[in-house]
């Protein structure tokens, strides 16, 4: 996890209307994503999921590179929850709130009884993952694992109100222009 931990200390932090926002290769694709960093993260994510599931589900946009890499390695099909509707039969709309935006997303191709792994880059206010889990529950899927690269700790999380647990590779806080690392999976092997 050296690459991920090092990259967190060098990532720029910008102000989004008072919200301290980390600009990181995994969460933004900016600064550019080193393949060795992506590989390190994806290997750790795959270690933490049941690869015998029916589908990997990721939200657009910054779940896509992670989901694509995990899908290639595991042969599990990838479903992307999109920010635009296609109007296809069975499409479901969800409403999500994050720390800096409110928006709609659209779920296609997830069916009752599907066994699902959800992946994403970051769990921050939890609004995105809470909305996704609620919608997959309504459809009648089984959410087997939820894995994120980073979890922001120290704030309120909508995700705490729901029955699922998310595994993170690293827990961070972002404050006064600095990232603090609270825990990482690297600690588990010590
Ligand atoms: O826990 P939350 O507060 O919901 O924040 C986490 C979400 O925020 C980001 O997505 P964003 O909606 O900014 O879209 P992007 O992936 O297109 O950058 C990120 O990729 C997560 O999906
Ligand atoms: N890149 C990011 N930095 C800080 N908080 C976030 N919440 C969602 N994405 C984030």
Automatic annotation (TrEMBL):
The keyword Glycosyltransferase applies. GO terms for biological process: purine ribonucleoside salvage. Signal peptide: none annotated. GO terms for molecular function: adenine phosphoribosyltransferase activity. Residues 40-169 form the Phosphoribosyltransferase domain. Transmembrane segments: none annotated. The keyword Disulfide bond does not apply. It is an enzyme of class 2 (transferase). Its EC number is 2.4.2.7. PANTHER family: HYPOXANTHINE/GUANINE PHOSPHORIBOSYLTRANSFERASE (PTHR43864), XANTHINE PHOSPHORIBOSYLTRANSFERASE (PTHR43864:SF1). This is Adenine phosphoribosyltransferase.
């Amino acid at each position: 996890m050296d690459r991920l931990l090092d990259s967190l200390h060098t990532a720029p932090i910008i102000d989004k209307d008072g919200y301290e926002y980390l600009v990181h290769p995994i969460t933004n694709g900016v600064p550019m994503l080193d393949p060795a960093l992506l590989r390190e993260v994806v290997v750790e994510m795959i270690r933490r999921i049941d690869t015998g599931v029916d589908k990997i589900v990721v939200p657009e946009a910054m779940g896509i590179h992670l989901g694509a890499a995990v899908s290639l390695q595991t042969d599990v099909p990838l479903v992307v929850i999109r920010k635009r509707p296609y109007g296809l039969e069975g499409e479901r709309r969800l409403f999500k709130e994050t720390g800096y935006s409110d928006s709609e997303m659209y779920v296609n191709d997830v069916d009752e009884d599907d066994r699902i792994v959800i992946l994403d880059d970051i769990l921050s206010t939890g609004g995105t993952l809470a909305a996704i889990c609620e919608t997959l529950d309504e459809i009648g899927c089984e959410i087997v694992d939820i894995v994120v690269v980073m979890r922001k700790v120290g704030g309120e999380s909508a995700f705490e109100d729901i029955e699922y647990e998310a595994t993170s590779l690293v827990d961070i806080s972002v404050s006064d222009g600095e990232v603090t690392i609270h825990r990482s999976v690297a600690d588990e092997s010590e």
